Amino acid sequence: MTRKILISADDFGLSVEVNEAIEIAHRQGVLSTANLMIAGDAAEDAIIRAKRMPNLQVGLHVVVIEGKSILPKSEIPLLVDENRLFPSQQLKMGINYFFNQHIRRQLEKEIRAQFETFRKTGLALDHIDVHKHMHLHPTIAQLIIKISHDYRLQRIRLPKEPVKTLRSIDQTTNLDNTNNLLVYYWCKLLEEQIKKAGMKSFDWCFGLSWCGHMTFDRIQKLIPSLPQGNSELFFHPATTKTGLYNQLMPQYEPEKELETLCHPDFPKLLQEHGIHPITWKNI
């Protein structure tokens, strides 16, 4: 079994600074894939950039937390505020999504609106993933898979990160055992849902524990230790932090992640360890 890698960036469309970084990382670095926040403040700018980069694969980055909705509050009053912003309380939202059927109906309506808005861009929909990996929640996963089927989409991110690999290369990484067990449990449920639906995903996913801090020093240690199979490495680059990015992710280091993606030794590192870059279409 060979080791193959997909290198992607989340939050395309969040801000012009994120879009700039994604374009730079694709043209000058190793980035092959971007995940579009279709309701983001800079979504139109992202779409224009994507259309002038035909080799950039673009997926839908569904937002149901810490971001903007497509639909106005009048249509989904239980989900967003007057500014169309979803809340940030993950646990509370998860409970509401599970027990409140009215919220679930509005959630499905909004997710469908995000799919449909993406379709109208004319971009090819490459794959699906969800902001903050909220599709680990079984209710959201069920809706995402159902709507993906309606749009004949077969590829979805499975945020399955091998903690042992991270521990072996970076002892400073904060790996909470309780949280890891919960994520592992939710991942197993999601993996079963994906397989049952006949959808495809990568074997491994890196970027959860180091989210916002994917420095080249860490990547240098990670690449030789990648497990067998197909791995996705996802980043959050930006040329600088402004606006909503600074508000929602003040601790992230997006400039350093952009430096990582454009590091001149990155392609050589992959070649030295026999790791082949791929896209979603290769799995």
Automatic annotation (TrEMBL):
Q: Which domain of life is it from?
A: Bacteria
InterPro entries for the chain: Glyco_hydro/deAcase_b/a-brl, Hopanoid_biosynth-assoc_HpnK, YdjC-like
Write down the required cofactor(s).
Answer: Mg(2+)
Question: One Pfam family name from the record?
Answer: YdjC
The protein's matches in SUPFAM superfamilies, at most eight in alphabetical order, are given as: Glycoside hydrolase/deacetylase
Hydrolase: is it a keyword of this entry?
A: yes
Source organism of the structure: Commensalibacter melissae
Q: Which GO terms describe its molecular function?
A: deacetylase activity; hydrolase activity; metal ion binding
Stated name of the protein: PTS cellobiose transporter
Q: Per UniProt, which keywords does this protein have?
A: Carbohydrate metabolism, Hydrolase, Magnesium, Metal-binding
